């Protein structure tokens, strides 16, 4: 079903590249109309309902996280490997942050829509932070793209919300608050994608979240006390 729906769509796994070649390589080439792309998305829901994205079962017979972590150490500076392991052993959040390979192995076999953009590959909460833009404005953005690779968009979202829950536990938040934070994160992700889907392709490159927008839309009063609030450069 997915392959039938995705025929000719270059962002879908198994797509027929000859049907719509290199359509996103140039702003001079028109992609499929939005209405048609929305219909493709709705068709994918029939094959991969949203409720199935919450299912996860550990295959304890074949799962070997230690072996995966040891493999991920290959090519690293030997003297820094013990430092990395010590940081991972310090807390559940530290382990989650340093074990992207384990989570990738966990989610690789889970249901996904087959839409395969270039994903961050390590979109945990610790890789989101404040940075100074070239204009010296303080912006909120994602960093650390050394694991970036074509993959399911669901992988990044799963890592982001999982790290949000684990980080909440580490800071002493209740399970209810962790759940609320995860649901808020997922809703915000959905709403932003809906917004970007309506924007022209070129305009999406200029979307950004700065301190002014956070101060305006944030619900926490403590945000106004952050350095750089009100649009001042903070780095």
TrEMBL record:
Protein name as it appears in the record: DUF2252 domain-containing protein
Region Disordered: start-end pairs: 1-33, 215-235
Listed Basic and acidic residues bias regions: 19-33
UniProt cross-references to Pfam families, sorted A to Z: DUF2252 (PF10009)
């Amino acid at each position: 079903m997915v392959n039938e729906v995705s025929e000719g769509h270059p962002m879908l796994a198994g797509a027929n590249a000859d049907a719509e070649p290199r359509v996103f390589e140039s702003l001079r080439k028109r992609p499929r109309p939005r209405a048609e792309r929305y219909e493709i998305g709705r068709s994918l829901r029939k094959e991969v309902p949203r409720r199935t994205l919450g299912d996860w079962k550990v295959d304890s017979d074949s799962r070997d996280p230690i072996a995966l972590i040891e493999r991920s150490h290959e090519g690293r500076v030997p003297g820094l490997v013990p430092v990395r392991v010590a940081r991972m052993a310090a807390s559940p959040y530290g382990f989650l942050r340093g074990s992207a390979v384990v989570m990738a192995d966990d989610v690789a076999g889970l249901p996904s829509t087959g839409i395969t953009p270039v994903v961050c590959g390590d979109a945990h909460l610790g890789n989101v932070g404040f940075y100074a833009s070239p204009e010296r404005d303080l912006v909120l953005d994602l960093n650390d793209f050394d694991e970036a690779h074509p993959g399911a968009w669901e992988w990044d979202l799963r890592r982001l919300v999982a790290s949000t829950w684990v980080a909440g536990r580490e800071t002493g938040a209740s399970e209810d608050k962790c759940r609320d934070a995860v649901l808020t994160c997922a809703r915000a992700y959905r709403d932003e994608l809906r917004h970007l889907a309506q924007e022209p392709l070129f305009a999406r490159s200029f979307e950004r979240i700065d301190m002014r927008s956070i101060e305006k839309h944030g619900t926490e009063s403590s945000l106004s006390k952050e350095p750089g609030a009100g649009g001042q450069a903070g780095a």
